[in-house]
Amino acid sequence: MGLIECKEICKSFGEKIALDHVSIDIPKGEIYGLLGPNGAGKTTTIRIINRITIPNSGQVLFDGRPITDNDVAKIGYLPEERGLYRKMKVGEQAMYLAQLKGMTARDAGSELKKWFIKFGIQDWWNKKVEELSKGMAQKLQFIITVVHKPSLMILDEPFSGFDPVNAEIIRKEILRLKDEGATIILSTHNMESVEELCDNIALIDKSKVVITGGVDEIRHKYGNNHVELIYSGEPVNSQEGLFSIVSDQDNSGRHTAVLALESGSSSNSILEAIIGQGVMVNSFKELIPRMNDIFIKLVTEGA
């Protein structure tokens, strides 16, 4: 049983269908990728989980029971459109929002100072929010999202606005929070982050769930039975019943080739056949499609 279960969620705004019988199951203690093109229904799903919006039909379960307003206090939500009070001081705002999530002033002050020191932003405490750069404001909002140690964190494009160094800091914190038992929904267009961070994903397109499952499982499912062969010597020839050559780049006698394997052929028999052609094999590995390629394939095919 997942921490969050969406069961047959439907939502319309006037005549526009935002979600059409969307069902997803988000396991406890995992990072779950919520993917889809702009306008697919991701944000509506997130807003329904947060009880900002109520579905027309279907239900959301939190830890096996219908979600309530009290459960929202156990959720940390980082929206894509950041909302900070620009005229307030950074520390004052952080304290205010932490206490809205049920923290005492003492606990909020203690935890916030730990986070500010960890992120190297302790000198910002008395600055106004409007003085912060976009990246600085992002750091502040991330801290506010996680400071009350929510059991569920919903992060919508959490790396937006960060340079590579600060994006890596946030990435490591997300993994650490997961290791400490948090469940994290990651909504992003960055497929590299999905491959690095997510255990499972759901792809939503045109208001419907297109595919769900483990990242590795999905990548293997959409593989095309190609391998990369790096070898030295004369060009390798296709061998009927085993493999055909898709491409072969020769760099002064060192070749990088892509082979299409025939159904039922084994790696051992293919390697034996290649070596039998008198070449030296340096590397032989399966080519697994990237999530970015799978995303484009599924979305464009459904167009």
The mean pLDDT is: 92
| Residue runs with pLDDT of under 50 for 5 or more positions | none
Q: What is the CATH level 1 assignment of the largest domain?
A: Alpha Beta
Biggest sheet overview: 6 strands, mixed
* Alpha carbon gyration radius: 24 Å
Number of domains: 2
Gap between N and C termini: 33 Å
Kindly report the spatial arrangement of strands forming the biggest sheet. 6-7-8-3-9-10
| CATH-derived architecture of the largest domain | 3-Layer(aba) Sandwich
Strand content: 25-35%
Describe the structure.
There is one protein chain. The protein folds into 2 domains: 4-220, 3-Layer(aba) Sandwich (Rossmann fold), CATH 3.40.50; 224-287, Alpha-Beta Plaits (2-Layer Sandwich), CATH 3.30.70. The chain is elongated. It has helices spanning 42-49, 69-72, 90-100, 105-118, 134-146, 164-179, 191-197, 215-221, 267-275, 291-301, and strands at residues 4-13, 16-26, 31-35, 57-62, 65-66, 75-78, 152-156, 183-187, 200-205, 208-214, 226-232, 243-251, 254-261, 280-286. The model has no long low-confidence stretch (mean pLDDT 92). 33% of the residues lie in helices and 30% in strands. It has 10 helices and 14 strands.
List keywords for this structure.
six-stranded mixed β-sheet, 30% strand, 303 residues, four-stranded antiparallel β-sheet, 2 domains, Rossmann fold, Alpha-Beta Plaits, 33% helix, single chain, alpha/beta
